[in-house]
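Open question from group meeting: does this chain pack into something compact, or does most of it stay loose? Before anyone orders reagents, we agreed to write out a predicted structure and look at it together. Recording both the input and the output here so the notebook holds the full record.
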Amino acid sequence: MSEDSPLIRSLRTAVESAPTDVPLRLHLAGLLLEAGQADAAVAEVAVALQHAPGDGEARALMARAMGAFVPAPAPAADQPSAPAVDLPSEPAPAVDQPSASAADRPSEPAPAVDQPSAPAPAVPTDAAPTPSAPTPPTDQPAPDPRTGAFDWRAAADQVGDVIPPRFVEAPLTTEGSGDPGDAAAWDVDTPGTIRLADVGGMREVKERLEAAFLAPMRNPELRKLYGKSLRGGLLLYGPPGCGKTFIARAIAGELGAGFLSVSVNDVLDMWIGNSERNMHEIFQTARRQAPCVVFLDELDALGAKRSRTQHSGMRNTVNQLLTELDGIDSAANDGVFVLAATNAPWDVDIALRRPGRLDRTLLVLPPDAPARESILRYHLKERPVENVDLGKLVKATDGLSGADLAHLCESAAERALLDSARTGTVRMIGMRDLLAAARQTVPSTEPWFASARNVAMYANEGGTYDDLVAYLKKKRKL
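Structure tokens returned:
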């Protein structure tokens, strides 16, 4: 290896003063590579890639340097050897000077650092010693940090893991394809085992569902006779925790249809146009998998009133949803059943609720007595209980939602667990625990009814919320 030129020494000094200057370091690496110092060039490029992993010039230069540094076969006695990997602190002999052959080399230990000596033939650090290429002595001097000498194989392993920065996407092709989102597939659940019979109580809800969806599906001849299409939309609304999502899955199981659940994060995208494309792809997937139930959860977020929406992208998403429900190609929706759920139907765009779209509205109220008994029995069947009077417990839980009932059973189990831990004696969950938990459980539906009361009194245009008004009068909340 030749001695550093004045230009290389000056560039080393400049790089030490500005270690983050990637172009300057790459310039130094290029000169080192031209001077035959491939190992030093690899070292400089490796540092540059740490500061700029995606730099194309650095990656290309690394490939050149690594290719130039591949160890050659052991040289013959009359041929010059490749430069050694570990360089002494003093300048090494020039590359064009032949080194001593294996036959002429003395058997004494390696010379000290300050004694001039011909370099030993290069041997990879992980290669086994051969008779023609003896293993370098283990007492070689440590690498000099000024020369940048280091183990090139370790550098290759390190640099080999360098990848472009995250979140950098490749540009689209001229026809607009190649977007990573094109490969995304929407998961359609297979028809589940849940049926409406698994939904406790809610007789009126089941009757409405039978008329809207189930009877036309089970009777194709009557459907043709009366001109009933398989397109349809149903909006489930009511207080949170009352089983709207469970009912939607039960409908899909009853129809033997696939189930495609859609939420806000499945549709909305930060890039303009992607939200509309996501909405279109969801319905295209449902059409290919028909019969299929598309369940739009939290519809007030996906289909909010456009008059209250400030961002144009959100308005376009609502427009796309309207087009998919009842656009020019709406006949393609045969076999696609659209169910939507919301806690705030008054915040849903009115165009979504006109005939032909989500034209049927169903109020899902807190579970009635038979439903509460089924829910309590389900949450207690795997727990150690004794002497539980479900009839008494059902009366004590009037007004609680399904989620409240699950929390009640969890709280009763906690009371029995803590009591067993304090006394050291395991005991069963009894009525005392359940009734105490019922007294401490505040109905989570009360804030919703406080808001719905104002809507029922002052914004019931066209009798949209007549079911809600009747319930509030029955409970004497209106």
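Observations to bring back to the group:
Residues 402-423 form the longest helix (22 residues).
The chain has three domains: 1-102+112-164, 196-363, 369-440.
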